[in-house]
Specification:
Layout (H helix, E strand, L loop, with lengths): L6 E6 L2 E5 L11 E2 L2 H7 L3 E11 L2 E10 L8 E5 H8 L9 H17 L12 E2 L6 E2 L6 E2 L4 E9 L5 E6 L10 E4 L6 H13 L2 E13 L4 E12 L9 E7 L13 H10 L6
Parallel strand pairs: 1-5, 10-14
Antiparallel strand pairs: 1-2, 1-3, 2-6, 4-5, 7-8, 8-9, 10-12, 11-15, 13-14
């Protein structure tokens, strides 16, 4: 049941739900709900609480609700999380705002809860742990925590200090970004960088350096940003994920990702001269 004295983050699919009249400056705030909300969505609510660690001395208890994807949401507007990240994170060098971190954590947990209703070991209906953010099977005792899928994204420069940008088949026309991919079992992140670059564009790289990470809950990733220098090979795209890849100078850049993503953050570092060959 909804506690009328609490405020909630509300999600449907990959969007944050907020009342239609909410101003952009207020979209990051949890919402106080009335009995009309309970009546409108009562049959399809997943209500949960979670802790958010803003810093080592500030642990906050927060609350969230996940609504089934087929529920109509009259009187509410959807803010896709990718758009929310762009709005709330300017792409500067500081950590993402506490408010955005809380929302991303809530969404990550909401998506994880959808796939952990049943125990993966014995098939029993899971309970929520009373002591931590986890699922606890009442039958076999299996304890499951929210999953995190690490992914890498890498800015590569060549001897001319040009940047390697690629067009993924899923991108809009004209959009180019950095090479990215998921970490595999038993693989270091540096090995993932080398493998993904070799698989997707046939290049070898060296001097792999960690720069920055970012929660990327689509649905459960941690995006880890790296810098690397071209070590050999000519561009040859795989034709499966990557349709085109080229070296670009600072004077002739294509359409690049918006502010708020690790990819744009890395590109801005290169543009500012902080990442060079």
């Amino acid at each position: 049941m909804i506690d009328m004295e609490r405020k909630y983050y509300i999600f449907q699919e990959n969007s944050l739900l907020i009342p239609e009249q909410t101003a952009d400056s207020e979209i990051h705030k949890p919402i106080e709900l009335g009995p009309d909300f309970q009546q409108q969505f009562n049959s399809s609510l997943d209500i949960f609480s979670f802790s958010s660690v803003d810093d080592p001395e500030n642990i906050v208890e927060l609350h969230a609700i996940s609504i089934k994807s087929n529920e109509p949401v009259l009187g509410w507007k959807q803010i896709p999380l990718r758009q929310l990240i762009n709005i709330m994170n300017s792409g500067n060098r500081d950590e993402i705002p506490h408010e955005l971190s809380r929302i991303l954590r809530a969404y990550h947990i909401a998506e994880w809860r959808k796939t952990t209703k049943y125990c993966g070991c014995c098939g029993s209906i899971n309970n929520d742990s009373k002591t931590e953010t986890a699922r606890l099977c009442p039958a076999c005792g299996q304890l499951e925590f929210p999953r995190i899928a690490p992914a890498i994204i890498t800015l590569i420069v060549n001897e001319k200090n040009e940047v390697l940008l690629a067009h993924n088949i899923k991108f809009i026309e004209g959009m180019y970004s950095l090479i990215a991919g998921f970490n595999e079992a038993g693989e270091s992140l540096e090995a993932t960088v080398k493998r993904e670059i070799k698989e997707e564009i046939s290049l070898d790289v060296k001097d792999i350096t960690y720069i920055k990470s970012q929660p990327w809950p689509f649905p459960d990733s941690l995006m880890v940003g790296f810098f690397a220098r071209h070590a050999g090979g000519d561009i040859k795209v795989d034709g499966k994920e990557i349709e085109d890849a080229q070296w670009f100078s600072k004077q002739k850049l294509p359409l690049i990702p918006a502010h708020g993503s690790v990819s744009r953050f890395l590109i801005e570092l290169w543009l500012n001269g902080d990442l060079q060959y």
